[in-house]
Specification:
Length: about 325
């Protein structure tokens, strides 16, 4: 008999390691290289003149980029059967390139927060968006049957490919560590909720001497609704005051629904796939409209802090 319990448990262990080790490595990188804070009073002369625009503390954001499904790099061959007729079962999952985009808003708090971390603001900004994700992958299987002397009696190959599409909603908190006046390390923690609207193929393709029922036993497919806690890391570039370009990456670190013991991977066929998003984010802070003669609401201290902060954007 095929020990499918062993197959799935090993792949679940691998994906849990992915979800824990990668964000820990990224956090270590942040604290080593991202400690210098941007001077919020320094004005930008990127275009030859000082920028005196009166900016708001929010504006639109758009994010886009390729996606890739991470799988186990080591393809394990699992023996089964008995000594009179031993057999081997091998699963070989692979990711393929897809794509995604989302658009929404970014908000930069300006008031002094009630809670500080080592005297500094915990949240630099938060953003959210809605969009579309495309994930693509494949899985190949191979079964070999031998006689008692080790001679190959038969071999069966199977192959399946899938393309899944999701409507996605995301909300993220971000903490920035500035490097001089132009660059910063942007790391964020957020929640994404995805609903599958494009259903990938759940049947293996005919491939060589394929025998469907033999290869696809005990396959699993994740639910249409997916909720995950994700971590993101990027290198922020200040193009000019109020305009930012942030290339980076995003990966889920905890599966909420289907919970599946918190595994962040997406189950398809007999394998787990962890989605990695390579992101390019652009944020544009909006300008304030000209006043109509009415006084602004808020204390003088809040107005002063807001002015100082926005002069640094």
């Amino acid at each position: 008999m095929i020990d499918f319990k062993t197959i799935f448990s090993r792949r679940l262990t691998f994906n849990r390691k992915i979800g824990v080790l990668i964000p820990l490595f990224l956090l270590n990188f942040i604290f080593v290289f991202g400690q210098k804070k941007l001077n919020p009073r320094k004005k930008s002369d990127a275009f030859g003149t000082t920028d005196y625009r009166d900016l708001r503390n929010y504006g639109p954001q758009i994010s886009f980029g390729p996606t890739y499904l991470l799988t186990s790099k080591r393809n394990e061959t699992i023996p089964f059967g008995d000594a009179s007729r031993p057999s081997e079962y091998t699963i070989d999952p692979k990711g393929s390139l897809g794509g995604y985009f989302d658009f929404g808003m970014a908000h930069f708090p300006t008031k002094t927060p009630r809670i500080l971390l080592f005297g500094k603001r915990i949240i630099s900004y938060y953003d959210y968006g809605i969009g579309l994700k495309i994930f693509r992958g494949q899985e190949m299987t191979n079964i070999k049957n031998y006689d008692g002397s080790g001679n190959l009696l038969s071999e069966t190959d199977g192959k399946g490919k899938f393309t899944n599409g999701y409507v996605s909603a995301r909300f993220s908190f971000h903490k920035d560590f500035h490097i001089g006046s132009k660059y910063f390390i942007d790391n964020g923690l957020g929640l994404n909720v995805d609903y599958r609207i494009i259903n990938g193929d759940q049947e293996y393709q005919k491939y060589q001497n394929f025998q469907g029922p033999t290869v696809k036993t005990n396959q699993e497919f994740h639910s249409k609704l997916v909720a995950q806690l994700h971590y993101s890391l990027g290198l922020g570039i200040r193009l000019k005051r109020g305009s930012y370009l942030i290339p980076g990456a995003q990966i889920p670190i905890l599966g909420i629904y289907d919970f599946n013991r918190g595994n962040p991977g997406l189950r398809w066929y007999s394998s787990n796939y962890v989605p990695l998003l390579f992101t390019v984010k652009f944020i544009k802070i909006l300008e304030k409209k000209k006043g109509n003669g009415c006084s602004n609401v808020g204390s003088e201290e809040d107005k002063k802090r807001n002015k100082e902060y926005m002069q640094g954007q």
